[in-house]
Design goal:
- Helices cover 66% and strands 3% of the residues.
- The chain has 527 residues and is an all-alpha fold.
- The protein folds into two domains: 285 residues, no CATH class; 198 residues, no CATH class.
- Strands 1-3 form a two-stranded antiparallel ribbon.
- α20 packs parallel to α23.
- The longest helix is centred in the N-terminal third of the chain and has 33 residues.
- The chain starts with a helix and ends with a helix.
């Protein structure tokens, strides 16, 4: 079989593996729902005082911007598990025993990831066409004007995202939580800088080029007008306006080579990432996995094999711990904490111990605004393991064979995560009570309960750490870092406390805990 034949078979096999999973159905449904939000005007871009006609140029450009934004941000986390899946299921060991070139294998993963993202794009293109059809704009329908923004703006970014997903999976230091956070900040910087700068090469989602074109059209109709742009959840906090917007027909962008060629740089970056990815890829070879140095290995008490020495041991030298019957919740929680806290660099523990101390020592506003959010992101990899560890390491049968596995294992995992969140936020809670801010202290307690409960529920439902890491990080970033009161679940802003946002999250926490219990109960009954 030729090299292209092997590549095609790997791509086809990987696509079949992806599309046969329930997660793929959820991805398609989520993409369809996102298209509905943009079509219905609940999410997107608007220009206050002006109403753009839903012609092909505007509908295609509008959908392409947010399609690119969604797939660049969310799509990365959706497709970046394919190599890890081969490693976990044992397929990687089979591949390692074949003469398959590692660059061919990675290129197949790259292409299959790109095709999955392209499938999501096709759904959104279809949604844009549906908007034209249902909006009575068939006379102004122009397929080329609608499709061109997707080809110029979206497709090159999809290639970059596919390349980044493969690269992040092959580099050991980027596979976990650190890689997820690093990619999020990388994309955010690109989006913000691209919108602000007049440079097509760094305009990731193409928003600057399109908004500039619409601004020129507005100024041509109403010279001297101050043009404003609203982006995001449109109408969520809009009280309405008595002034009717001015209708505006935008002819679209003339996609010249000067605008289109710089965007090929994103595609080139995605393809170029295959080279360092091939260098980092261990090809599922255990000998290339970093091991402990001989001096760091723990003593096991086993006598090494040596010439002339018998390996037999006397029965009297062997002592077994006596069997005890009963259940000790404290011992189970301590064991859970040892497993959760094991394996991190000493600097991680220093920061974890220093955060609650710094909250007590720092001024109240500093502790509330900066140190408390830091405490709620530092143990992210610990929380994300809740509800997933037994499936990741194949210990489901061992866990389910123990007495009362749901109540004991689930409660110990939840309480272990709760102890960690409470410990890291304890400094702020103590400081708030000493300052007489008992509502703030209660809000800190509510947030400390919310985080591990959410992690446990998402881990139990999805069986993956990634979904919690991504979704929680976005809530944390928007609510606690950007200080948006609607997602401020721990009360770092006065608006969140006055509107009772922490108590809403506390109510949601009770629902999430019930979902986690029901999910585990169903899983145990099935198994």
């Amino acid at each position: 079989m030729t090299g292209f034949g092997v590549l095609g078979h790997i791509i086809l096999g990987d696509l079949r593996e992806r599309t046969r999973r329930y997660s793929f159905i959820w991805i398609m449904l989520a993409t369809t729902f996102f298209g509905y939000l943009v079509i219905s005007g609940k999410y997107g871009m608007t220009f206050p005082g002006f109403l753009l006609a839903p012609n092909s140029a505007w509908v295609g450009s509008h959908m392409a911007i947010f399609c690119t934004l969604m797939l660049a941000l969310i799509g990365f986390y959706v497709i970046r598990n394919t190599i890890e899946r081969d490693r976990r299921t044992g397929v990687g060991q089979i591949i390692a025993a074949t003469p398959l070139n590692q660059l061919t294998y990675l290129l197949a993963k790259f292409v299959s990831s790109f095709l999955v993202l392209t499938g999501c794009t096709v759904i959104l293109v279809s949604a844009a066409i549906l908007l034209q059809v249902t909006g009575g704009q068939m006379r102004s329908f122009h397929f080329g004007a609608l499709l061109t923004p997707f080809l110029v703006i979206t497709v090159p970014v999809l290639l970059m995202v596919a390349g980044a997903a493969v690269f992040f999976e092959t580099a050991r230091w980027l596979r976990g939580t650190f890689g997820n956070i690093l990619y999020f900040f990388f994309i955010e910087v690109l989006v913000i800088q691209g919108i602000a700068a007049d440079a097509p090469a760094i305009d990731l989602i193409g928003a600057h080029a399109i908004t500039s074109g619409i601004e020129e059209a507005i100024l041509a109709v109403a010279p001297g007008t101050s043009v404003a742009v609203q982006v995001g959840a449109l109408g969520l906090f809009d009280t309405g306006s008595a002034i009717a917007p001015t209708p505006l027909t935008w002819p679209g962008i003339d996609w010249t080579m000067g605008l289109a060629l710089p965007r090929l740089g994103y595609a080139a970056v995605g393809v170029a990432m295959m080279m360092p990815a091939a260098a980092f890829f261990d090809r599922f070879d255990p000998s290339r996995i970093k091991r402990r140095r001989p001096g760091k290995r723990k003593k096991t008490g086993v006598v090494p094999d040596s010439p002339g020495r018998s390996l037999t041991r006397r029965t009297a030298d062997i002592s077994l711990a006596p069997v005890t019957v009963g259940f000790r919740l404290t011992a189970l929680i301590l064991s859970e904490l040892r497993v959760m806290l094991k394996g991190y660099h000493w600097s991680w523990y220093v920061v974890a111990l220093g955060l609650p101390i710094a909250q007590i020592a720092a001024p109240y506003d500093i502790a509330r605004t900066y140190l408390l959010p830091a405490a709620l992101i530092w143990p992210l990899p610990l929380w994300s393991a809740l509800g997933t560890r037994d499936r990741r390491y194949g210990t489901q049968s061992l866990m389910t064979s123990s007495p009362h596995p749901m109540i004991r294992q689930l409660s110990s995992a939840w309480l272990g995560g709760l102890i960690i969140s409470t410990a890291l936020c304890s400094g702020m809670a103590i400081k708030a009570m000493l300052a007489g801010q008992f509502i703030q202290a209660a809000a800190v307690a509510a947030g400390a309960i919310f985080v591990p409960t959410t992690a446990l529920m998402l881990g139990a439902v999805t069986g993956s750490r990634k979904f919690f890491e991504v979704s929680y990080f976005m809530v944390w970033y928007i609510g606690l870092v950007n200080r948006h009161w609607a997602l401020d679940f721990i009360g770092t802003t006065d608006q969140a406390l006055s509107r009772g946002v922490p108590w809403v999250f506390l109510a949601v926490t009770c629902i999430l805990l019930a979902v986690a219990v029901l999910t585990e109960r169903t899983r145990l009954q099935v198994s």
